[in-house]
Amino acid sequence: MRKIFIAATKQNDGKTTVSLGIIRNLQQKFSKVGFIKPIGQRYLEEEGLRIDEDSILIEKVCGIKSRLKDMSPIAVEKGFTEKYITKPDKKNISNQIQDAFRRISKNQELVVIEGTGHAGVGSVFDHSNATVARLLGAKVIIISSGGVGRPIDEIILNKALFEKEGVKVLGVIVNKVLPNKFDKINRLVRKGLERKGIQVLGVLPYDPMLARPTIEQILEETGFGVLCGGEYLERSVAKVIVAAMEPRDAERYISEDSLMITPGDREDMIMIALSCFRDSGNKKLKICGMILTCGITPQAPIMELLVKANIPVLLAKSDTYDVATCVHDLTVKIRPCDQEKIEAVEKLIKENIDFKKILSHL
Amino acid sequence: MSAQHFTDLNFKQEVLESDLPVLVDFWAAWCGPCKMIAPLIDELAKEYAGKMKIGKVDVDANPKIATKYGVMSIPTIIFFKKGKIMNQLVGAASKLALKRKIEENL
Fold this sequence. Notes:
Number of domains of chain A: 2
Number of helices of chain A: 15
Number of helices of chain B: 4
Distance between the termini of chain A: 9 Å
Largest interface: A-B, 25 and 27 residues
CATH superfamily of the largest domain in chain A: P-loop containing nucleotide triphosphate hydrolases
Structural class of chain A: alpha/beta
Strand order of the largest sheet of chain A: 2-7-1-8-9-10
CATH class of chain B: Alpha Beta
Oligomer: heterodimer
């Protein structure tokens, strides 16, 4: 049975996206592909159990028929590390991971193992990604974000920890490379890593569509209220505008599918937001939604217009700066219902990853 | 009297050469917010008859005028007095907000 461990240089480098794309592509070559995320830090309650959300995503999107708890044996919940430091039990964690892996990998041709954060994450409870990869006897692919100097530095650092555990690093995938810098980075990063004896298995261009949240995701992550337009929460956000300028200037900043953040008493801004592109090829409202801040609900006539506009309008108690920061800091994860994103990921991976090279080393 | 319809052809005569101040509502049939304010524009045309000429420009049928005045978003309301732009309002607006602007531009 072949197995591969997907690691990263840090959180949010795109491990789950790459894992999902790799699995969907490998399912076209192998009929039995398994998945496990031994240690998870963002979990959901599913069937009364705490399951890592990435495992739930992969199970649903890739149709993997394994027990969810086996796909996500260790959930690092609040107080987990504190409890471990007070009373360490390394063997118990190792056993749980190995037992789950045994069940997951039964009758499979290939198993994708997804790590969590950088190589050292989990060291606090004696199960860094490097330790887990060794425990499961898997070779590693390291994912890093785009760039030249920083990814190479970080890859070398992470590789050192895997090698210290005796784990073979198969190669790296450089993710989220800006399209306008793609040719330059692709050339330089390959040359730079090959100089260090590290294989490049793929360089992936950044697709802004994958980073777009829907209004519903913003709502779930922030706990803002819905003022109106609750039936349009699925709208996706391409750009966020903090409307604090003169209204006539604001108009220039609004592009397709912008989310406007403005205090609830800025009627002038709300009015500007309720306008359409003049371009007849783009017959739609300029904005895809609004977040009104400072807990101010607009006056009745403006509220009436907002209700008729058929867009989601959220109300936040905090001020505009806090709301904008909160939206900016959101981590946009792919969800099972994001069909368009899932198809884009499959295509992105198919076109930019050297599967022949990966499989020849497994 | 409902709001008048201004076109590429009659704009100079009806708007730029008008003795009364003029409110021009740039709109399109597919624009939701334009539809929201359309009845308000008609009501205001009646209320301000003799004081201000109030009319509409369909931007799809009259692209020259919309382009000439740099209308990028609709609805856009432009106030003219003696052929000159006095004020501009973008987006949907309540009747109260529109009345306030009209009073400013009489």
